[in-house]
Amino acid sequence: MDIAVYGAGGVGAYYGGRLAQQGHDVTFIARGEHLQALREDGVTVESVAGDFVVDCPATDDPAAVGEVDLVLFCVKSFDTADAAASLDAMLRPDSAVLSLQNGVDNEDVLADVVGTERVWGGVTYIFSTIKEPGVVEHTGGPARIIFGQYHDIEDEPPERPALADDFHDACEAATGMSADYTNSVHATLWDKFALICAQAGLTAATRQPFGVINDTEETWALYRRVIEEVVAVAHAEGVRFGWDPVTKWLDAMESMDNEDSYSSLHYDLTHGKRMELDALHGSAVRRAHEQGVDVPAVEAINAILRPQADANEPAP
Fold first, then answer.
1. What pTM does this model have?
2. Highest taxon of the source (predicted)?
3. Which residue in 3, 5, 60, 109 is deepest, having the highest Cβ count within 10 Å?
Protein backbone atom coordinates (compact mmCIF):
# COMPACT_ATOMS: atom_id res chain seq x y z
CA MET A 1 0.00 0.00 0.00
CA ASP A 2 0.94 3.65 -0.49
CA ILE A 3 0.39 5.32 2.88
CA ALA A 4 0.88 8.88 4.10
CA VAL A 5 1.09 9.52 7.83
CA TYR A 6 -0.19 13.05 8.43
CA GLY A 7 1.08 13.96 11.86
CA ALA A 8 4.00 11.57 12.36
CA GLY A 9 4.17 11.84 16.14
CA GLY A 10 4.28 9.05 18.68
CA VAL A 11 1.25 7.24 17.30
CA GLY A 12 1.57 8.02 13.60
CA ALA A 13 5.30 7.35 13.34
CA TYR A 14 4.96 4.10 15.27
CA TYR A 15 2.25 2.66 13.03
CA GLY A 16 3.81 4.09 9.88
CA GLY A 17 7.14 2.59 10.85
CA ARG A 18 5.63 -0.81 11.50
CA LEU A 19 3.88 -0.79 8.12
CA ALA A 20 7.08 0.34 6.40
CA GLN A 21 8.83 -2.65 7.98
CA GLN A 22 6.42 -4.83 6.01
CA GLY A 23 7.40 -3.20 2.72
CA HIS A 24 4.58 -0.70 2.35
CA ASP A 25 5.47 2.71 0.89
CA VAL A 26 5.09 5.13 3.78
CA THR A 27 5.66 8.88 3.73
CA PHE A 28 5.75 10.91 6.94
CA ILE A 29 4.31 14.42 7.14
CA ALA A 30 5.80 16.25 10.11
CA ARG A 31 7.37 19.55 11.07
CA GLY A 32 10.13 21.19 13.08
CA GLU A 33 13.06 19.36 14.60
CA HIS A 34 11.23 16.05 14.39
CA LEU A 35 10.91 16.42 10.62
CA GLN A 36 14.59 17.28 10.29
CA ALA A 37 15.55 14.18 12.26
CA LEU A 38 13.23 11.95 10.20
CA ARG A 39 14.84 13.26 7.01
CA GLU A 40 18.39 12.78 8.22
CA ASP A 41 18.20 9.49 10.13
CA GLY A 42 14.76 7.97 9.59
CA VAL A 43 12.60 7.03 12.58
CA THR A 44 14.03 5.09 15.50
CA VAL A 45 11.40 3.20 17.48
CA GLU A 46 12.16 1.96 20.99
CA SER A 47 9.36 -0.53 21.52
CA VAL A 48 8.29 -3.16 24.00
CA ALA A 49 7.50 -5.21 20.88
CA GLY A 50 11.05 -4.86 19.54
CA ASP A 51 13.21 -1.89 18.56
CA PHE A 52 13.69 -0.95 14.94
CA VAL A 53 14.79 1.80 12.56
CA VAL A 54 13.22 2.59 9.18
CA ASP A 55 14.06 5.31 6.70
CA CYS A 56 10.92 6.71 5.06
CA PRO A 57 10.49 9.88 2.98
CA ALA A 58 9.47 12.81 5.18
CA THR A 59 8.10 16.22 4.28
CA ASP A 60 6.12 19.15 5.63
CA ASP A 61 4.32 19.64 2.30
CA PRO A 62 1.35 17.31 1.68
CA ALA A 63 1.26 18.37 -1.97
CA ALA A 64 4.71 16.82 -2.43
CA VAL A 65 3.57 13.36 -1.34
CA GLY A 66 1.52 12.44 -4.38
CA GLU A 67 -1.57 10.22 -4.46
CA VAL A 68 -1.80 7.45 -1.88
CA ASP A 69 -4.19 4.65 -0.98
CA LEU A 70 -4.58 5.75 2.61
CA VAL A 71 -3.83 8.73 4.83
CA LEU A 72 -3.32 7.93 8.50
CA PHE A 73 -4.58 11.22 9.92
CA CYS A 74 -2.95 11.73 13.33
CA VAL A 75 -2.73 15.50 13.78
CA LYS A 76 -3.94 17.17 16.97
CA SER A 77 -7.65 17.93 16.87
CA PHE A 78 -7.13 21.69 16.83
CA ASP A 79 -5.19 21.27 13.56
CA THR A 80 -7.85 19.13 11.84
CA ALA A 81 -9.47 21.83 9.71
CA ASP A 82 -6.18 23.30 8.46
CA ALA A 83 -4.67 19.88 7.72
CA ALA A 84 -7.84 18.64 6.02
CA ALA A 85 -7.66 21.53 3.57
CA SER A 86 -4.44 20.08 2.11
CA LEU A 87 -5.62 16.47 1.78
CA ASP A 88 -7.02 16.65 -1.73
CA ALA A 89 -3.64 16.45 -3.47
CA MET A 90 -3.03 13.03 -1.86
CA LEU A 91 -6.39 11.46 -2.62
CA ARG A 92 -7.82 9.53 -5.52
CA PRO A 93 -11.58 8.91 -5.67
CA ASP A 94 -11.07 5.51 -4.00
CA SER A 95 -8.52 6.66 -1.39
CA ALA A 96 -9.39 6.86 2.30
CA VAL A 97 -8.50 9.04 5.28
CA LEU A 98 -8.36 7.21 8.62
CA SER A 99 -8.59 9.49 11.64
CA LEU A 100 -6.80 8.21 14.74
CA GLN A 101 -7.41 11.39 16.73
CA ASN A 102 -8.90 12.28 20.07
CA GLY A 103 -12.54 13.33 20.16
CA VAL A 104 -15.74 12.82 18.18
CA ASP A 105 -15.70 15.95 16.01
CA ASN A 106 -12.85 15.21 13.59
CA GLU A 107 -14.62 12.85 11.21
CA ASP A 108 -17.34 15.38 10.43
CA VAL A 109 -14.71 18.03 9.70
CA LEU A 110 -12.90 15.64 7.37
CA ALA A 111 -16.13 14.55 5.68
CA ASP A 112 -17.03 18.16 4.90
CA VAL A 113 -13.72 18.53 3.05
CA VAL A 114 -13.07 15.19 1.31
CA GLY A 115 -16.49 13.54 1.34
CA THR A 116 -17.97 11.10 3.85
CA GLU A 117 -17.28 8.12 1.58
CA ARG A 118 -13.51 8.70 1.90
CA VAL A 119 -13.45 9.00 5.69
CA TRP A 120 -12.84 6.16 8.13
CA GLY A 121 -13.40 6.74 11.82
CA GLY A 122 -10.91 5.04 14.06
CA VAL A 123 -9.55 4.62 17.57
CA THR A 124 -6.30 3.16 18.80
CA TYR A 125 -5.04 1.87 22.12
CA ILE A 126 -1.32 2.45 22.54
CA PHE A 127 1.17 4.24 24.78
CA SER A 128 3.63 5.81 22.34
CA THR A 129 5.27 9.23 22.39
CA ILE A 130 8.08 11.21 20.79
CA LYS A 131 11.04 10.71 23.13
CA GLU A 132 13.19 13.16 21.19
CA PRO A 133 13.25 14.33 17.55
CA GLY A 134 13.29 11.26 15.32
CA VAL A 135 12.86 8.82 18.23
CA VAL A 136 9.54 7.24 19.23
CA GLU A 137 9.12 5.42 22.54
CA HIS A 138 6.42 2.73 22.60
CA THR A 139 5.89 1.63 26.19
CA GLY A 140 2.70 -0.43 26.12
CA GLY A 141 -0.90 -0.88 25.20
CA PRO A 142 -2.20 -3.46 22.72
CA ALA A 143 -1.24 -1.28 19.71
CA ARG A 144 -4.63 -2.07 18.23
CA ILE A 145 -6.58 -0.01 15.71
CA ILE A 146 -10.37 -0.31 15.43
CA PHE A 147 -11.77 1.43 12.37
CA GLY A 148 -14.81 1.60 10.15
CA GLN A 149 -16.35 3.46 7.23
CA TYR A 150 -17.81 6.73 8.52
CA HIS A 151 -21.44 7.60 7.84
CA ASP A 152 -24.28 9.75 9.14
CA ILE A 153 -25.45 8.42 12.47
CA GLU A 154 -29.01 7.99 11.20
CA ASP A 155 -27.89 5.77 8.29
CA GLU A 156 -27.12 2.07 8.17
CA PRO A 157 -23.40 1.22 7.96
CA PRO A 158 -22.23 1.13 4.34
CA GLU A 159 -20.67 -1.90 2.74
CA ARG A 160 -17.13 -2.61 3.90
CA PRO A 161 -14.73 -1.21 1.27
CA ALA A 162 -12.12 -3.46 -0.34
CA LEU A 163 -9.39 -1.03 0.74
CA ALA A 164 -10.39 -1.69 4.35
CA ASP A 165 -9.57 -5.36 3.84
CA ASP A 166 -6.17 -4.41 2.45
CA PHE A 167 -5.39 -2.19 5.42
CA HIS A 168 -6.65 -4.73 7.92
CA ASP A 169 -4.45 -7.42 6.39
CA ALA A 170 -1.44 -5.08 6.36
CA CYS A 171 -1.86 -4.34 10.06
CA GLU A 172 -2.33 -7.99 10.98
CA ALA A 173 0.82 -8.95 9.06
CA ALA A 174 2.93 -6.26 10.72
CA THR A 175 4.91 -6.82 13.89
CA GLY A 176 3.68 -5.09 17.02
CA MET A 177 0.23 -3.97 15.85
CA SER A 178 -3.20 -5.29 14.93
CA ALA A 179 -6.50 -4.02 13.55
CA ASP A 180 -10.21 -4.79 13.56
CA TYR A 181 -12.95 -3.46 11.31
CA THR A 182 -16.23 -2.35 12.90
CA ASN A 183 -19.71 -1.59 11.59
CA SER A 184 -20.36 0.35 14.81
CA VAL A 185 -18.09 3.27 14.09
CA HIS A 186 -20.04 5.87 16.11
CA ALA A 187 -20.25 3.62 19.15
CA THR A 188 -16.53 2.86 18.84
CA LEU A 189 -15.62 6.55 18.71
CA TRP A 190 -17.85 7.50 21.67
CA ASP A 191 -16.67 4.49 23.67
CA LYS A 192 -13.09 5.74 23.60
CA PHE A 193 -14.22 9.36 23.98
CA ALA A 194 -15.82 8.48 27.32
CA LEU A 195 -12.59 6.85 28.50
CA ILE A 196 -10.39 9.73 27.34
CA CYS A 197 -12.55 12.34 29.04
CA ALA A 198 -12.12 10.45 32.32
CA GLN A 199 -8.45 9.49 31.96
CA ALA A 200 -7.21 12.75 30.48
CA GLY A 201 -9.49 14.93 32.59
CA LEU A 202 -8.61 13.41 35.94
CA THR A 203 -4.85 13.05 35.37
CA ALA A 204 -4.68 16.66 34.17
CA ALA A 205 -6.97 18.14 36.84
CA THR A 206 -5.30 16.29 39.74
CA ARG A 207 -1.75 16.27 38.31
CA GLN A 208 -1.61 12.69 39.55
CA PRO A 209 -0.99 9.39 37.73
CA PHE A 210 -3.76 6.90 37.16
CA GLY A 211 -2.75 4.69 40.10
CA VAL A 212 -3.37 7.50 42.58
CA ILE A 213 -6.73 8.28 40.98
CA ASN A 214 -7.74 4.62 41.14
CA ASP A 215 -6.67 4.35 44.80
CA THR A 216 -8.51 7.49 45.93
CA GLU A 217 -12.16 6.67 46.59
CA GLU A 218 -13.58 10.12 45.89
CA THR A 219 -11.52 10.61 42.74
CA TRP A 220 -12.33 7.16 41.40
CA ALA A 221 -16.03 7.91 41.88
CA LEU A 222 -15.55 11.07 39.82
CA TYR A 223 -13.72 9.06 37.14
CA ARG A 224 -16.76 6.79 36.89
CA ARG A 225 -19.12 9.76 36.85
CA VAL A 226 -17.32 11.31 33.87
CA ILE A 227 -17.66 8.10 31.85
CA GLU A 228 -21.35 7.83 32.78
CA GLU A 229 -22.04 11.42 31.72
CA VAL A 230 -20.30 11.13 28.36
CA VAL A 231 -22.14 7.87 27.63
CA ALA A 232 -25.43 9.64 28.48
CA VAL A 233 -24.60 12.32 25.91
CA ALA A 234 -23.83 9.62 23.36
CA HIS A 235 -27.22 8.01 23.98
CA ALA A 236 -28.93 11.39 23.57
CA GLU A 237 -27.19 11.84 20.22
CA GLY A 238 -28.52 8.51 18.97
CA VAL A 239 -25.45 6.33 19.55
CA ARG A 240 -26.31 2.75 20.43
CA PHE A 241 -23.75 0.49 22.10
CA GLY A 242 -23.76 -3.28 21.90
CA TRP A 243 -22.00 -3.28 25.29
CA ASP A 244 -21.88 -1.30 28.54
CA PRO A 245 -19.01 1.20 28.18
CA VAL A 246 -19.05 2.14 31.87
CA THR A 247 -18.56 -1.38 33.20
CA LYS A 248 -16.20 -2.25 30.36
CA TRP A 249 -13.80 0.60 31.10
CA LEU A 250 -13.91 0.47 34.88
CA ASP A 251 -13.13 -3.26 34.83
CA ALA A 252 -10.45 -2.88 32.16
CA MET A 253 -8.68 0.05 33.78
CA GLU A 254 -8.64 -1.51 37.24
CA SER A 255 -6.96 -4.63 35.86
CA MET A 256 -4.52 -2.81 33.58
CA ASP A 257 -0.88 -2.32 34.55
CA ASN A 258 -0.84 1.44 34.06
CA GLU A 259 -0.48 2.88 37.55
CA ASP A 260 2.18 5.37 36.50
CA SER A 261 0.40 6.58 33.35
CA TYR A 262 -0.87 10.10 32.81
CA SER A 263 -2.29 11.40 29.51
CA SER A 264 -1.30 13.58 26.59
CA LEU A 265 -3.59 16.30 28.01
CA HIS A 266 -1.60 16.23 31.26
CA TYR A 267 1.68 16.35 29.31
CA ASP A 268 0.55 19.35 27.26
CA LEU A 269 -0.77 21.15 30.34
CA THR A 270 2.45 20.69 32.33
CA HIS A 271 4.74 21.51 29.38
CA GLY A 272 3.01 24.69 28.29
CA LYS A 273 1.75 23.17 25.04
CA ARG A 274 -1.55 23.78 23.33
CA MET A 275 -4.19 21.50 24.87
CA GLU A 276 -7.00 19.51 23.26
CA LEU A 277 -9.51 20.59 25.91
CA ASP A 278 -11.99 21.92 23.35
CA ALA A 279 -12.00 18.58 21.51
CA LEU A 280 -12.54 16.65 24.73
CA HIS A 281 -14.42 18.18 27.65
CA GLY A 282 -15.35 21.32 25.72
CA SER A 283 -17.00 19.23 23.03
CA ALA A 284 -18.75 16.99 25.58
CA VAL A 285 -20.16 20.03 27.41
CA ARG A 286 -21.32 21.68 24.18
CA ARG A 287 -23.04 18.53 22.96
CA ALA A 288 -24.60 17.95 26.39
CA HIS A 289 -26.12 21.43 26.37
CA GLU A 290 -27.48 20.87 22.86
CA GLN A 291 -29.12 17.63 23.98
CA GLY A 292 -30.33 18.87 27.36
CA VAL A 293 -28.17 16.40 29.30
CA ASP A 294 -26.74 17.32 32.71
CA VAL A 295 -22.96 16.75 32.91
CA PRO A 296 -21.78 18.46 36.12
CA ALA A 297 -18.61 16.37 36.47
CA VAL A 298 -17.48 17.06 32.90
CA GLU A 299 -18.38 20.74 33.31
CA ALA A 300 -16.29 20.94 36.49
CA ILE A 301 -13.22 19.41 34.82
CA ASN A 302 -13.64 21.71 31.83
CA ALA A 303 -13.82 24.71 34.17
CA ILE A 304 -10.81 23.61 36.21
CA LEU A 305 -8.61 23.12 33.14
CA ARG A 306 -9.89 26.05 31.08
CA PRO A 307 -7.58 28.78 32.53
CA GLN A 308 -4.45 26.73 31.82
CA ALA A 309 -5.70 25.72 28.39
CA ASP A 310 -6.27 29.40 27.57
CA ALA A 311 -2.83 30.28 28.89
CA ASN A 312 -1.26 27.62 26.68
CA GLU A 313 -2.89 28.88 23.52
CA PRO A 314 -0.34 30.27 21.05
CA ALA A 315 -0.20 34.03 20.62
CA PRO A 316 -2.23 35.30 17.66
1. 0.95
2. Archaea
3. 5
